Amino acid sequence: MKKEKNDKKEEKKVNEKIKKEEKIEKTEKKEKKEKVKTSNPEQKYGKIKFAVTVLAIILVLGAIAYVVNTIIEKQNFTAQNPIATMEIENYGTVKIELYPDYAPETVSNFIKLANNGFYDGLTFHRTIPNFMIQGGDPNGDGTGNATLKDLGLDSDEDYTIKGEFIANGYNDNTLKHERGVISMARGDYSSYSSTLATEGYNSGSCQFFITTTDQSSNLDGLYAGFGKVIEGMEIIDNISNVEVETRDTQTDTDSTLTQDKPIDPPVITSIRVDTFGIDYGTPETREPFDLNSWYMSQMYGY
User: What share of the chain is helix, strand, coil (3-state, %, to 5)?
Assistant: First the structure.
């Protein structure tokens, strides 16, 4: 009997020990679980931080690569010069490459006028074989200027631009007046007074001429060449040889006839310039010199 009691007592102790161990095990598991739960946010934050760091490095490297590539592209980029397409009624199409590196203001002026439709319907009013053809005058006789409105500005006033050539203190234009060169026409007031040379240099507005010979070196440095014919030079030759009212070599008693003016002036249907996406801006303009006012002031002092 006593043995039974001892066995039961011993069994109870064992059971209590087992329960105690199970309780300890459960407590440890719970603590471990809580520890895992506590550590997870830190692990998650660490992973996010790592991912953000990697992404930032990738973005920085991408930005550096873009900047380097842009610099290389700019170094290798050569801008396409503007190309003017001139349609001439009954004659055909002439294409002219413009040279902004030589005469930026002159090129800007020509582009603005052409693409605003200024030249549409105007004529070549002066033609000389083995020399040049001249056109772009709204009056059709060599006396006209364009207005600021023709440039897209809000004014009907006439204007002129600075002559971009060596005689006028502009040394960047070294373009020679060889065959096919387009150049800016201008006035010459030096016969009235040597002090008016600069006024003549800066009197160009809209009229232009195209040379038909390589023997025009006398124009170099005195007129603003700003491009060259690249297609249709034979058309320019044909126009230079049209019949005119009178020439220097002809004697004519009719004073109404105009020297070197074609009897049937060739008509410019249109001129449009492809700038290949580059904006050449608006030229800097000047108020035209008034020769009549100057003459009156010299004659009568006012």
Answer: 40, 20, 40
Nearest CA-CA partner of 268 in 210, 184, 193 = 210
pLDDT category of residue 5 using cuts at 50, 70 and 90: low
CA 83/CA 161 separation, integer angstroms: 21
Residues in Cβ contact with 31 at an 8 Å cutoff, skipping those fewer than 6 apart: none
Helices and strands (H and E) in the chain: how many = 5, 10
Q: Which residue has the tokens 């320019």?
A: 236
What the block records as the tokens of 219 is: 């124009």
Residues 6+ apart with CB under 8 A from 173: 102, 103, 164, 165, 166, 224, 225
**Residue 153 near residue 278, CB atoms below 8 Å:** no
pLDDT digits (tens, 9 = 90+) for 189-227: 999 999 999 999 999 999 999 999 999 999 999 999 999
Neighbours of 248 (CB within 10 A): 8
What is the pTM for the complete model shown? 0.75
> What is the separation, in whole angstroms, between the first and last Cα of the chain?
154
Strand intervals (E) in the chain = 83-88, 92-98, 124-128, 132-135, 160-161, 181-184, 208-211, 225-231, 268-274, 285-286
3-state secondary structure of 197: helix
SS3 133: strand
Phi, psi angle pair for 249, to nearest 5°: -85, -5
Q: How many residues would you count in the chain?
A: 302
Across the strands, what pairs with 244? 262
The tokens describing 228, both together, are: 């060259």
